Amino acid sequence: MTIHASFDRFSKKRGTSFAVEDLTFEVPAGRIVGLIGPNGAGKSTALAGLTGLLEATSGRATVFGMDYRTLQKPVTKVGVNLDGMDIEPGLTGRRHLQICQLAAGTSPESVDRVLELVDLTAHGKRKVRDYSLGMRQRLGIASAIIGSPKLLVLDEPANGLDPDGIQWLRSFLRDFASSGGSVLVSSHQLTELEQIADEVVILKRRMLFRGSLENAMAVGGGSLEAAYFKILEGAR
Ligand SMILES: Nc1ncnc2c1ncn2[C@@H]1O[C@H](COP(=O)(O)OP(=O)(O)OP(=O)(O)O)[C@@H](O)[C@H]1O
Predict the structure, then answer these.
(1) Could you tell me if the CB of 187 is within 6 A of ligand 1?
(2) Does 163 contact ligand 1 (Cβ within 6 A)?
């Protein structure tokens, strides 16, 4: 089994206490792994550690067996869309993607390709400030995939999406994984995650659960949400 991302006893201190402690799991090719946990559980810290934005206090987080910061042309391997990666509101969606395309060193045609993929072709000439939250989410995903990466790391991608957008995201991620890609996605939307994840990691500073969606749902009598509360309760 090819492993695209791996946390190996990853720990990160923020201030005087650990935001994440001793986190170990893998994201294999072809799989969608959902990272869930309450506010402040350390999900963003883990994703930032994986994508080179934070350095581990101990342990490691690697992509394709390497530290993200040592990857050559990282955008062609890992697509990242994290909370707080704001897009300049005065740019048009197309211009934003052209900048990403230049930075990624991919062909100019990739801009049209990703606009089409995220269903924003008709809105490419509009300024980002006039985009809805859902359109901004799609544009963030478009920027993440401009280098045709194999691994996607997404923080709360369903935020702000309407039911159509959620359906679109679901089939987009499914297609991405079935063509050999992998996805690590953090989400608070458990019923949504139940529809898309193959594997689930529950984090509350420490990892409380790691396993297949099926096993997670079995803990909750067929519901991921019930399993989540049961596992959190058990850890108190
Ligand atoms: N820049 C920072 N400096 C110091 N502590 C931080 C910083 N960012 C986050 N923390 C702390 O690290 C812990 C984990 O936060 P993190 O944002 O990773 O959690 P999260 O699971 O992503 O939360 P949420 O679901 O609310 O987005 C929290 O206790 C938070 O207060």
Answers:
(1) no
(2) no
